[in-house]
Amino acid sequence: MTFLNPLGLALAALAIPILLLYMLRLRRREVLVSSHFLWQRALKDYAANTPWQRLRRHLLLLLQLLVLALMVVALARPAIPTGAPSLGRVVVLLDASASMQTVEAGGQTRWALALDQARRLVGELGVGDEMLLLRVAQTVDVLSDFTADRARLLNALTTAEVGAGLADWETAFTTAAASASAQPDTRIIILSDGSGGQLSEVVLPATVPQPRLILIGQRRDNVALATLAIRDEPAGGRQIFAQVVNYGAQPVTVALTLRLDGVLWRSQEATIDAEALRSFTLSVAQPFETVQAALVVPPDQDALALDNVAFAAAPLRQSRRVLLVSAQPFSFLERVLSVLPEVQLVQGDPARATLPAERYDAYVFEGYLPAALPDADLLLVDPPRSAELFTREGVLDLPRGVQVAQPDHPLLPFVDLSALNLRQLTAIRSEALRPVVTMGGEPLLLAGERGTQQIALLPFALSDSDLPLQIAFPILMANLLEWFTPQTQLVSAGSLLPGDLLPITPPLAATSLRVVDALSSSVTLTPGDLYTTTIPGLYRVEAYQGETLLASQWVAVNLFDLESQIAPSDGLILSGTPINPTQEEALGLQDVTPWVALLALLMLLIEWGVYHRQMRLRRA
To answer: 538 and 556 in contact (C-beta within 8 Å)?
Structure first.
């Protein structure tokens, strides 16, 4: 025990006057009586009372000294070590990541244990203390702003829910840093299992005081689906690839079940060694769009069930419809585009100034430009005149010196143009397109985006170069079509994490979007709106023009094994400083002054009762 106001102990000196009052001679009135025969005892007492008589045992004296001692201790504000800080502000960071759904030996989840610990911290707040509650999941939510109202804090904890993804610790500590900068004595407490090592990767802002960690959970055994993917086979059909990890210290037998489009397709058992990984490769001949893999594991060997399920969406097998309009009698583009997989090539008439009314996924114009460029992905080769996107200037003869301006551009993987030879190159100036490769200081390959359009431009005739004879030519065309987004490709990512934004690229004609989440709840969006995933599962994205469905696509959202290493951390290292769990270490002091004051009042009542009882006996 310690004292928050040690100077209050100086009032213990008040015991001296109390003792003196009991040691001084009693004062009596002198009265004349006829005889002292009946007053013998009174005379003996009078003779024994000297000015400073010897202190005798007296119950009232003991009670009065005890009351004084308790009052002095109360004024000194006694405090005992406890698990909660006092005399200041405290920020509690509640880990709501997926690993907090781990079921511990007692049947409670780590999240429930963390809430119980948070309630204990709320109950131990002292006079003048304030607490801020932050829920740290895919997003950081303020459960309760700084307040000393315990009822409000407890109610906020009642409504808090655990998440199904990773925890955004960087944002959490940034929020805590803003709170700490407002008042220097702000303290931070982390309620977390510290699993996965993600918390240790965070760099604390300079304004954040060193936090304290209260470790939650003990179990280490877990089995998880680490990978689920679908790939096309060259001879047709598809392969399903899955990986299962056993993080426990004992071998475990699991049953892996696979559902194609929601219908059970196969189930097989396998034994996975301790702390080992096992892969499964299965060939599927029948067509399907989605796969759901699930593990059946004994509960005593698997503490976290969330990572026992994974999802995958089959890659879209939709041919890109490409319109080629070439003014060349023999087009190298026609030959290379016709052999690229999943490209449906249609040739247009260069004698027409307008394009067909039918829309295409991409347009390729060689030595030709229509009266108006379509709102779609474009490849322009040797344009004959200027257009709204660029200005055509003079022609350079025999340019030399190929230089890459944007090495990381998606058009350039495995493309080497260093040995390219040109007879002439047209100078192009454009604000919408940026040079990707230059030759002799002039743009050789330009590319850019305008809204949802991807546009590339080659300012030279292929017949004036040896590019069609190089291996870089078909690779460049393949990269170009990969860069172009077909109108039916709504989402560019096949698999996402909970909390990720859906990268939706709607068709130009789309007027509305509809997203159906893993719980079959639907949300209607307008093109350009953002949508954030929440839980693992299969999401359906649909694009409409009015009431007409233009395109739809499945998207898989998986946690996989990012939170499956559930073994609690022995300690964390934040910004190079080790932080050990504080299960035994006291985090602060709890003021017990009200209890001491209440005990002093009780002793005072007892002293009052004893005094009046003795007075009644004397009168009797």
So the answer is: yes
For residue 601, the Cα-to-chain-centroid distance in whole angstroms is 52
Q: What is the 3-state secondary structure (H, E, C) of 480-532?
A: HHHHCCCCCCCECCCEECCCCECCECCCCCCCEEEEECCCCCEEEECCCCCCE
Please tell me the predicted confidence (pLDDT) of residue 427.
93
Range of the domain at 22: 2-81+594-619
Q: Within this chain, do residues 440 and 461 fall inside the same structural domain, yes or no?
A: yes
Residues 353 and 446 occupy one common structural domain:
yes
Lowest mean pLDDT among 5-14, 261-270, 271-280, 384-393: 5-14
Q: Do 470 and 338 share a domain, yes or no?
A: yes
Residues 6+ apart with CB under 8 A from 131: 89, 90, 91, 92, 121, 122, 125, 144, 146, 147, 148, 153
Residue 444 phi/psi, 5-degree rounding, is: -100, -30
Entry pTM:
0.60
Is residue 151 domain-resident?
yes
348 and 388 co-located in one domain: yes
- Burial category of 87 from C-beta neighbours within 10 Å (exposed 0-12, middle 13-18, buried 19 and up): middle
- What lies within 8 Å, CB to CB, of 347 at 6+ separation is 323, 324, 325, 326, 334
Q: Of 461, 452, 454, give the one whose Cα is nearest residue 425.
A: 461
Q: What is the pLDDT of residues 491-502, one digit of tens each?
A: 877 678 898 899
Asked, for residue 567, whether it belongs to a domain, the answer is: no
How many domains, in total, are found in the chain? 5
- Separation of alpha carbons 463 and 22, rounded Å: 123
Phi, then psi, of 155 in degrees rounded to 5? -65, -35
- Do 348 and 448 belong to one domain? yes
Strands 442-450 and 434-439: antiparallel
Residue 96 in any domain: the answer is: yes
Tens of pLDDT, residues 159-208: 999 998 888 888 888 888 887 777 767 888 889 888 766 666 666 766 67
Task: Based on the fold, state whether residues 49 and 95 are members of the same structural domain.
Answer: no
Kindly give the residue spans of alpha helices, DSSP state H, lying in 24-103: 40-48, 59-75
